[in-house]
Amino acid sequence: MKRILLVLVCTCFFHYADAQEKNIGEKLAQEQLDAYNKRDIEGFLKPYADTVAIYNFPDQLIYKGKDAMRKDYAEMFTNLPDLHCTLKNRIVLGNKVIDEESVIFNKNNPPVRAAAIYTISGGKIVAVHFISQ
Questions:
Q1: What is the arrangement of strands in the sheet containing 48-56, beginning at the earlier edge strand?
Q2: Quick one: which of 19, 54, 77, 89 could link to 100 by a disulfide (CB 3.0–4.6 Å)?
């Protein structure tokens, strides 16, 4: 009987921990998206780990670290007045958040269809893998 009770308690704990990570991941992905569309560089960077790694899918490293990210995105926020990302679909699987997005860089051009795969660890986004057409 004690073993059954222990198994039930452990199962509930792991289910709760998985649900918490899922909620945190979804919250972080939304937080950075909202700040992106407001061109709020500090709000945008807040959900990311200091050592975040940004990739072109599957494994081409673009850069690593918040400082490089700040430089890249601050430049985009300043130089692209039409910049806007619309979330089309979101999937949360464990510590991964997968966003399907439609991104406008210039209103005179069609939007770019893209996907961002966010990896969550320690309550922060630690990696992003981008796929675009």
A1: 60-64, 48-56, 124-132, 112-121, 96-104, 84-93
A2: 89
Q: What are the pLDDT tens digits along the chain (133 aa)?
A: 555 544 444 444 444 445 555 589 999 999 999 999 999 999 999 999 999 999 999 999 999 999 999 999 999 999 999 999 999 999 999 999 999 999 999 999 999 999 999 999 999 999 999 999 8
